[in-house]
Specification:
heterodimer; A: alpha/beta; Rossmann fold; two-stranded antiparallel sheet; 25% helix; B: alpha+beta; Mth169, Chain: A; 35% helix
Chain lengths: 225, 79
């Protein structure tokens, strides 16, 4: 499995994400870090991670400026060609702003930055990101965001549900997100956006391994593909 | 030539910031404020001298970057 992580000014979960990919990559080629000003991706990639953080200082809207950077145009082409993309936290915001995922992440309903562990429920195992979990499984993952209040128009929401594209929900809604949504999949199920941080709970020394299954799922999907 | 873009939340989109402002106004004793919607104003200095061309261009900017049309409306004033 060959992975890359995109770095924007203000990204701060990029290295955690690279470590998580490296743990499951099955070889010793490290995850490639790609700077936002590069306009093309490395050859032969299987999966791209868009990390958490505060790209471009969250100016204008979270993820808005990053979504228009040259490298994200290449990521969009990669995704449209069937490539796997995962956006976590600010990465999720970049994916909605870029149009790869529907809807938008608004200010948390309590207007506060929320930094705590959240209980999640796995809603589908039918994706390259969740096949190692079981449906209904409860996971505990850190959340750390100011704008995680997911919303979308009624048609998009209906499609997300009808097509089984809600990947994770919150057991207790922390941010006002519609239908407790914490993470969603694209139409071809190869793009995942989620607010919680699996890459931060990927080693017993970090306090748990509930996030490991997600990266193991990707590795398994790519081996069996 | 200057352009002023006003970005507001679409009707029906919950605005927790506006709601917090409304409650605060109530707490300060201002009565009769039924609803508050918070938006933003973006001012642009343009080299374009033709108002119609300027507006056309700013409209493109709004669609591409300045507003997220999933939840926001925008209006353009050329001054």
């Amino acid at each position: 499995m060959r992975a890359a992580v995109i770095q924007f000014p203000g990204s701060n979960c990029d290295r955690d994400m690279a470590v998580a990919f490296d743990k499951v990559s099955g070889h010793n080629k490290p995850t490639q870090m790609v700077w936002h000003k590069d306009d093309h991706l490395p050859e032969g990639l299987d999966v791209i991670g868009i990390p958490g953080g505060f790209s471009f200082g969250d100016y204008l809207r979270c993820g808005a400026i990053a979504a228009r950077s040259p490298i994200v145009q290449s990521v969009i082409e990669f995704a449209k060609g069937g490539g796997y993309v995962i956006g976590i936290c600010n990465g999720f915001q970049v994916l909605t702003e870029s149009g790869l995922l529907p809807g938008v992440l608004m200010r948390n309903s309590n207007l506060k930055f929320i930094c705590k562990d959240a209980d999640l429920i796995v809603k589908t195992t039918d994706s390259a990101f969740t096949n190692r979990y079981t449906k209904g499984q409860k996971l505990r993952m850190p959340i750390a965001h100011h704008d995680g209040n997911y919303t979308a128009d009624a048609d998009s929401l209906k499609r997300l549900k009808d097509e089984n594209r809600v990947a994770f929900t919150y057991a207790v809604n922390p941010n006002g997100s519609v239908d407790d949504i914490a993470g969603i999949l694209s139409e071809n199920r190869r793009v995942l956006g989620m607010m919680p941080h699996p890459e931060r709970l990927n080693d017993p020394q970090l306090g748990g391994t509930d996030g490991s299954g997600l990266f193991e799922s990707i590795a398994e999907a790519l081996v069996s593909a | 030539m200057k352009a002023k873009v006003t970005v507001t939340l679409k009707a029906g989109v919950l605005d927790p910031q506006g709601e917090a402002v409304r409650r605060s106004l109530g707490a300060l004793g201002f009565e009769g404020v039924e609803a508050v919607r918070q938006g933003k104003v973006i001012e642009l200095d343009l080299t374009e001298t033709d108002p119609a061309a300027a507006e056309k261009n700013v409209r493109k900017m709004c669609e591409k970057l300045l507003a997220n049309t999933v939840i926001e409306n925008y209006s353009i004033e050329i001054v």
